[in-house]
Every structure is written in C-alpha cells, then in structure tokens.
Specification:
The protein is 35% helix and 18% strand. By secondary structure, it is α/β, with parallel strands linked by helices. It has two domains: 248 residues, NAD(P)-binding Rossmann-like Domain (Rossmann fold), CATH 3.40.50; 58 residues, no CATH class. The protein has a seven-stranded parallel sheet with strand order 3-2-1-4-5-6-7, with helices on both faces. A two-stranded antiparallel sheet has the order 8-9. Helix 1 packs parallel to helix 2 and helix 3 runs parallel beside helix 4.
Length: 342
C-alpha cells in the first residue's frame, strides 16, 4: 500500500524482477537446506525479520533463534516459526535483548550457545527507525541518535558473534537501497544511518575474510513500522547463506533473479560488480585506494578554470588552450606543455 513518499524507481541488475517468492530460492530445495545449522535472526519478531525466520525454519535447521526487545512479541512470532518448521527436531528459541546494549547481546548469544552450540548463521535485521523529515530542518540530535543507534546494533551484533561463531560463519545484513540511491524525500535520517551501517559491514567483511558476509535490500515491503508499498518478502536469505558464495561482500536486491545472478557468478566474484564503492580516475593507486598528488590537484583546478572560461555562455567552443605542467617525476623537474583543441 503506497504512502505519500515518492520512491525512486529501481533499476534491476537482472532481467527478471521478482515481487513474490519463486521455486529457485525455495527453502524446500535440498541445495538450500540449513540442516545442522544454528540460525539467529536479530529483529525477528515482526515484518521482514519474521518472514526471514519462517523461511529458515522451512529449510530444516538445527535451531532458529529470534532476538528482540519485547518478549511477548517474540513469543507470538515463535509460534509462527514453529508452525513452519519442516523438521520436527528443529528447536525454536527466543531471546530478549536491547541490541544497542553490548552486554545484553553477549548474554543472548551465550544463552543460544549454551542451549544448542555455536551460531552458524547470523541475520542482522534489527533497525532503529527515526522520525521522517528533510535534512534541512532535521534536529541534529535526532540524526546523531539514529546513526549511533543503528551503528551500535551492527557493531554489537558482529563483534559479539565472532567469538562464538561456527566453523563456516555467515552474516546476512538486511540493508536498504536508500543507503546508495538518489535521495528520497523525507528519509534523510534513516538513509544516512543505513549508509553508515553498510560501510561498517564492508569493513567487518574486509577484516574477517573467513566470514561470508552479504548485504541485501529486501524490496519495498509493507510492515507495521514503515508503510512502504507492498512487495512480498522473499526467502532468498537461505540462498545467500548456502549456494551464493560468489556474493560474498556484495550488495544485492531480493527482487533480482537468483538464477541469473548464479549464471554471472564468475564475473561478479572476480570484479567489483555489486560492491558498494565510489571511485575516481585511477591516476595513482595504492592498494585499492585512489589518490591525487598535490600537483595533479592544481592541474585539475587550472584546467577546470580554463574550461569554465572557454565554455562560458557567449564564448566560442573552438579555441585552443595550453597549460604548463611540472613533470610529476621528481628526478627530472622538466616542464611539459600540453595543448588541447576545444
């Protein structure tokens, strides 16, 4: 159901765009089985988190634990998850915790470990939703509270997970396209906070290469907390946790066709496709970073000034210009003359 917010029209990476679960990502597929795995879903009591929990329950894990603040909501959600289990041996657990409090997160994780063993799959789905509004008149303290709250959730979740993770740990991070698309009216605070979290997840993935980390945009999903227009939550996180090893460190949409992604696995894995990066011209590279030397910055500024003059309204665009540049090789100190025809 649409609300007053005008959302950006998404561009699909795959030819097929899904708004409903489909057979290729069905939890009932043997290839997507979660047999023997302990799954923990943070923020699993309602909405997207509960749909994720139900989907994992259908994949037959050893256990599935939903974590959130309100115990009564967790217990209600656990009933839905229990009704969906495909293996009667699957344990459905609940843990109450404020995910912004590291001590409470540690206690919740340890309780799971004490009951069923180490955690294999962690879904970071919890989020702090701020009041809507434009950034121009936004209260700074509200923005800081939102950024801090959502960043604490991600950091506590990941840091506490590492010491008690299973041998092949998986972290699935529910992100949002709002972190990397053009600004959407009214959602400045939420978008900025989620962009911060997405970059934090990038660093966690880089620093812990043994962990399979994927961030996913779940689609526009109508929940009690947001009122977005409805696109049904998918069951793709099972796929991301099992077959989609080539998506490690990537950002994907739940709406994209998983089979088409798999067909491009080699290309996706070997390039920066689906990585959340902004890069400039690779003039001077150090590792994967790109820098401009001070001389180059001056060159760019001088050329920009000349272009601005040559192509100002009423000016001819056919004139030539020349710029004297110092050779970037410090051992020669020679000057070069570069001439460009406009």
């Amino acid at each position: 159901m649409a609300n007053a917010i005008e959302y950006a029209t998404p561009i699909s990476f795959t030819k097929t765009w899904h708004t409903e679960p489909y057979p290729f990502i069905s939890p009932s597929r043997p290839e997507l089985s979660a047999e023997g795995k302990n799954v923990v879903v943070l923020g699993g009591s309602a909405g997207i988190g509960n749909a994720i929990s139900v989907a994992f329950a259908q994949a037959g894990p050893k256990s599935i634990t939903i974590v959130g603040r309100r115990l009564e909501k967790l217990q209600e959600a656990a009933e839905k998850v229990t009704a969906a289990v495909s293996d009667s041996a699957t344990q459905v657990l609940v843990e109450s915790a404020n995910l912004q409090d590291r001590a409470q997160v540690d206690r919740a994780y340890q309780s799971v470990v004490d009951k069923v063993g180490k955690i294999d799959i962690l879904v970071i789905n919890a989020v702090l939703l701020p009041a809507p509004g434009g950034l121009t008149n936004y209260k700074p303290e509200e923005l800081v509270r939102t950024i801090e709250g959502n960043l604490l959730i991600v950091m506590n979740a990941f840091q506490a997970f590492l010491p008690i993770a299973g041998p092949e740990p998986v972290v699935l991070h529910t992100s949002t396209c709002l972190a990397n698309i053009a600004p959407t009216p009214g959602l400045a605070g939420y978008s900025i906070s989620k962009a911060t979290c997405l970059k934090a997840i990038d660093y966690f993935a880089m620093e812990n290469p043994h962990v399979h980390v994927v961030s996913i945009q779940p689609g526009w999903v109508a929940t009690a907390s947001n009122g977005y227009q409805e696109e049904a939550p998918d069951k793709g996180k099972n796929y991301l946790a099992s077959l989609a090893k080539f998506l490690k460190g990537k950002f994907v949409w739940a709406n994209w066709d998983a089979q088409e992604l798999l067909e491009r696995a080699s290309e996706i894995q070997s390039t920066k496709l689906l990585n959340w990066v902004v890069e400039g011209i690779p003039i001077l590279g150090v590792g994967q970073a790109t820098f401009l030397l001070p001389q180059q910055v001056l060159i760019v500024l001088r050329i920009s000034t000349i272009y601005a003059g040559r192509y100002a309204p009423g000016k001819s665009s056919g004139a030539s210009f020349s710029v004297e540049l110092n050779d970037l090789n410090p051992s020669t100190k020679r000057a070069k003359s570069y001439t460009s025809e406009g």
